[in-house]
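--- STAGE predict ---
source: upstream dedup step, 1 unique chain passed
mode: sequence only
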Amino acid sequence: MSRPGHGFPLKPLAKLRPCNFAASALFRDNKVLKTTSCRARKSCRFQQKAISLTILFILFLFVARNASAATQAQIIPVHGTVLAVTSKNTAIVRNEAVTGMLPSATRAYRIEPQLILSAGAGIDGFVDERTRPWRLYDAALAGPFVPGIPQTGKVIALDIGSKLPHTQLVDQRERLVDLAAFHGVSLTSFIFTRCRDECPLIAAKFVEMKKQLDTSRFHLYLITIDPMYDSPFVIARYARQFRMNPESISVLTGQPHDIATLLDQFGITSLQNGDATFIHSDKVFLASPEGRIAQILQTAGFTPGSVAAQAQHLAGMASSPFGRFQLWLVAGVTALCGGNQFAGIVALETVLFLIIAGISFVTLGWVVRKIWGNT
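--- STAGE serialize ---
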């Protein structure tokens, strides 16, 4: 093969080679650079796609969560006063403020179930904000909540062997809870979130106690005696403060008239002492797996281990005999002192001191006789 007009042959293009080592190295480097650049572009595109998919997934979760929250109504227990009746199931109601959830306001409500209403009547219910007008469901005629001495004449007072009442309350997750629905051993006591002395001690003891109990077989309830302040928002904050797992410890509030009925049934005294303080009974109710009250502790001066031992005994499990004896001793002495916790503890400590002192004197006398006898 030769070029026209020339006398020397040409090599085929496929057989051409770089004429020196520098050109060969440049050729190889250029090929490597192109390959590396291509891989980098592919990696960059992959990272961009991954980031985009991650952002879309986060947006999807956010939208789904908001949609779920929009379809699930808050459970807001409220007390109000009927100002006017506009139809057979609609009324103008001035509702009291619900702490952290609902301001005091006057608005139209659709009342469910239908009640015989008149201006000036008190009403309790749960608010549903999703409807127009707002819905006040599970409504009942009720006067204002007034703390005080239990009015046992209006209810059947609970005692040993009594069944727990079927009362719907609201827990820290804004879920309805029936006290009698749990099929296991339950422990129930009463507190209020603004308390600064006994109530935090009871709450802390319940948390410590639950560490020794199986969630599937035991449940603990703390019911507020201050429903006008302790809204679901407030008790949720209280539960977080004490790190209470809602699967094992329920902090409960509810419609004011339901709380008042429970206080009467359980025999809980709640005397208001100022704007934010109550003087109230300290009681703990232990219920068997059949839902019947098995023991009533008239004091908050218990130890978590002793009550946990008694709860395990009720469940038919192995438990500490010493813990049960300690609980029996504290409960018995407190009952003998008329339910006065301080007097009961002082009396118990005095009795224990006298027993220990007596044992010590007997032991000392025996040792002295042995020594003198040997001499």
